[in-house]
Amino acid sequence: MSAAALAEYLILRPDGQQNILHDSKYSRPPIVTANGEAVRALRMYNQDPRRSQDTLLRVKDALTIKSQSAGITPKQRDEALRCLEIIDLFERNENTLGMRSMALTEAPTFDAIEIEGVMVSIRPDFIIGGGGGRNRVGAAILRVAKAPDPAGGKRPETRQRRGEIRREMARYMVAMQQLLLEAQNGALGVPDRDLCFVADVRLGERIGPAADHAVRLRDIRGACRQIAGLWEAVAPKPSLFKKP
């Protein structure tokens, strides 16, 4: 399971949890990561101590040209426009995200870790601090996914509810990043939960550990035990067998 899928599983009701289990077991990952061009640009920008605006400007220009190309497919145009939107949102919210002054380095590609019998893929975008030995180390995820989109709600209570769902997911993802760093057995440094966060570009918020962080660690382990027990019984939906 991905960290985002596990975080969503933790906050959903049983019927929603069943969908998460099904999709995690049977859905094939896309060959090209959604929002990939935007995420690569934001990673490059934030790893640069100078935070050169030219980095983002060049990518935005290329995406604008791509979106206006005559030979582009509707799917490719939508992807280009979505990546433009994400970069614009980051630029608008950069001050509130509070990442400009941080020394952020590229995160390695981590293997999935086992949590109570479940292999969980946790992919931070950045490493904070570290360097081995007794140095404190943290990790950060840039969350750009649209759903659930707070801005898409017509009523204030809907927007508020969607925003809180994103915050709850982020708090669990922060806890998972701590577990990921602990699984490295000190190779990157001493894991520090206070150096772990999720930068939610759509909310314009940097979300760190929850006040009940220790409880969330237990919740994650408990959910994984439950998932491990249910996994074999998860059957494919009939729609998977329909011809495209």
| Global morphology | globular
Give the strand content: 5-15%
DSSP summary: helix tally: 7
Secondary-structure element pattern, one letter each: HHHHHEEEEEHEEEH
Helix percentage range: 40-55%
Span between termini: 26 Å
Rg result: 19 Å
Largest sheet: 6 strands, mixed
Secondary-structure class? alpha/beta
Which residues sit in consecutive blocks of at least 5 with pLDDT less than 50?
none
Q: What is the typical, i.e. mean, pLDDT?
A: 93
Number of strands: 8
List keywords for this structure.
alpha/beta, two-stranded antiparallel sheet, 8 strands, 244 residues, 48% helix
Plain-language structure description:
- With 244 residues, the protein is of the alpha/beta class.
- It has helices at 3-11, 14-26, 36-47, 53-67, 74-97, 156-182, 213-230, and strands spanning 104-106, 113-115, 118-120, 126-129, 136-143, 190-191, 197-200, 205-207.
- The strands form two sheets. Strands 1, 4, 5, 6, 7 and 8 form a six-stranded mixed beta sheet that branches. A two-stranded antiparallel sheet has the order 2-3.
- The radius of gyration is 19 Å and the shape is globular.
Question: Layout of helices and strands, plus pairs?
Answer:
Blueprint: H1 3-11, H2 14-26, H3 36-47, H4 53-67, H5 74-97, E1 104-106, E2 113-115, E3 118-120, E4 126-129, E5 136-143, H6 156-182, E6 190-191, E7 197-200, E8 205-207, H7 213-230
Parallel strand pairs: 5-6, 5-7
Antiparallel strand pairs: 1-4, 2-3, 4-5, 7-8
